[in-house]
Amino acid sequence: YANIYWFCLFSIPLSIADSLFGAVSTTMLTNIVPESSTGLALGLNFIGIGFVGMLTPILGGYLYKYLGYCLFASCVGMFEIVALAYISSLGYTGTSTTTTTTNR
User: Fold this and answer.
1) 35 pLDDT exceeds 80?
2) Can you give the pTM of this predicted structure?
3) Based on the number of CB atoms within 10 Å of its own CB, is 13 exposed (0-12), middle (13-18) or buried (19 or more)?
């Protein structure tokens, strides 16, 4: 029963990190690219997410089988930290590059 407790313990921070990663990376992507390319950037982003979604069960099963859950969770967490650091180094300023005009 100890393995299920470790699984639950490590699943909580992984779930939080995964949900934050998806929201933050999509928001940063829409703020980095020009407004005219937002649709293309989001489309490519979600194509990549779908493609990676096909590969990760295979890779995850391999890592889990040979590394165990604790090291597997550590690898996933470190990947997300590195990915967020890379995305943040792309020039995100926290302000939108879009401009809105109102016609009165």
Assistant:
1) yes
2) 0.52
3) exposed
